[in-house]
Amino acid sequence: GGAMSFLKRFPPPAEGVRHQQPDTEAVLAGRTLGAGTLYIAESRLSWLENSGVGFSLDYPTISLHAVSRDLNAYPWEHLYVMVNAKFEEEETKEAPMAEGEEEDSDDDVEPIAEFRFVPSDKSALEAMFSAMCECQALHPDPEDEDSDNDYEGEEYDVEAHELEQGDIPTFYTYEEGLSHLTAEGQATLERLEGMLAQSVSSQYNMAGVRTEDSIREFEDGMEVDIAPAVAGQFEDAEVDH
Questions:
Q1: Cβ(131)–Cβ(40) under 8 Å?
Q2: Where is this protein chiefly located (predicted)?
């Protein structure tokens, strides 16, 4: 009849139960499934009606869980659980003609089911929520696997933030770096390079004083590049010699 098709008969979980809440009403999409026991186990979240049928939710499919105390939204305080999965009633399945179309349109929109678990003992809600958090943490989202290291994620955020501030990233090549310099910076760099070139020349000059051969080699190979003033120093060096 009107029974929910996904309700199955299975034994209550025996291992890794972080929290067990008896006398808890389960509500799917605003329709009650009856009263039962909610098992918040490490492997999955299960709810079993007192008659022994129920359902289980895998943590990776649970996109949100929260304690809802807003009595305007729902008249009883409860644990709200949003699931990325489809839970259909038998009645809605009677449309075989348009099945193909339906499936296509469903692919675009992620299926979402909203469960509410309403314990008769409202003071248990915090413990239920904490147990959910602990169990969720044991099942990291496979999509986030690359960055399941929190610190790594923060590091990226910092970098992104710095880039937004207009800072030049520190990992460009030397040439790219030059193109980022201001005209003034460029001039300073050229001046520094000039001074460096001069000090290199004078080192050659000092070394070249030793023997005539090294001076000749240096002049033959490098004459074009030597500024007249520096070339003059070499002529002096030869005369000294």
A1: yes
A2: cytoplasm
Is pTM beyond 0.90? Reply is no
Q: Which of 81, 68, 80, 64 is nearest to 141 (CA)?
A: 64
In one-letter notation, the amino acid at residue 159 is E
**Domain 8-89+110-138, classified CATH 2.30.29.30, yes or no:** yes
Determine the average pLDDT of the residues in 42-53.
Answer: 96
Tokens of 61: 């499919």
| Distance of alpha carbon 239 from alpha carbon 225, whole angstroms | 22
- pLDDT tens digits, residue range 48-78? 999 999 999 999 999 999 999 999 989 999 9
Percent of the chain with pLDDT over 70: 54
By the 10 Å C-beta count (0-12 exposed, 13-18 middle, 19+ buried), 45 is classed as buried
Return the ∠ at Cα 131 (arms to 127 and 136), rounded to 5°: 150
| Burial of 36 per CB tally in 10 Å (0-12, 13-18, 19+) | buried
